[in-house]
Amino acid sequence: MNGKTADVGTPQAKTGAAMVLGGGIGGMEAALSLAESGIKVYLVEGKPSIGGVMSQLDKTFPTNDCAMCTMAPRLVAIGRHKDIEILSMTDVETLEGGPGHFTATLRKRSRFIDEGKCTGCGTCVANCPTRNKVQPLPATAVEVEPRFRDKAREIVERNRGRKGLLMPILQEVNSAFNYLPEDVLSFVSRETGYPLSHIYKVATFYGAFSTVPRGKHLVSVCMGTACYVKGGERLLEKFSDRLEVKVDGTTRDMKFTLKSARCIGCCGLAPAVMIDNVVYGRLSVGDVPKILDKYKGA
Ligand code: FES
User: pTM of the entire structure?
Assistant: First the structure.
């Protein structure tokens, strides 16, 4: 649509197209409503993706609702709707005409990638020669603590040559040591060529990874809206009392780490708690001792 014009409706063709400016939550809702009435919609957004400010929020005022839970269904519906065309990184240059007969000229800025092929995996960023020149890999060997050394090398060697090897390596390191030791991450960076900054970006993004030592069992008490209103906070207090640790703390015997999680995806079972990969739902504070007893010998 670079410098082209789009006819968004003529008096002769009243069922023509509509153009919605701005892909925030309001624009998304408007686009969906128009498309549901059978009108072709051009959803124009200047940023690289739709979602607007709401996509950066955790909760919304005043209801404290999970912002992503509100947005995600709309994002999916827009992506799938045959009558909605998203024009991201696009600006309106001119708008002429009147009601029922507007003509807009749009300019779409380049992304410098083939949008049909890009999957957003980020591998090109990790392997960018320009970026790597600015941030050269350390020339000296990385000192890895002896207790991690052999296992870390084995994990890297096993994944070497594999496509998108960073995630599997981090997952294996995390499950082998129960966290991602700093010296092992430097070692992974040197051996794989991924900049350390990128590795930390991934390591700190996913809640399943930890960059500090963690207990053998991870107790995640859900504080999402559904769980919170059904007593999630009392459950968290009970776990904290019973384990004698604060949130984000680890018991002295390194057995449990207590976390407060956002929605863990089981709202129908609220209030819910996840220990490692096991979900316990519809809990009351009285259930906490029984649950923890199951892990006594484990
Ligand atoms: S709010 Fe969704 S599982 Fe707790």
Answer: 0.50
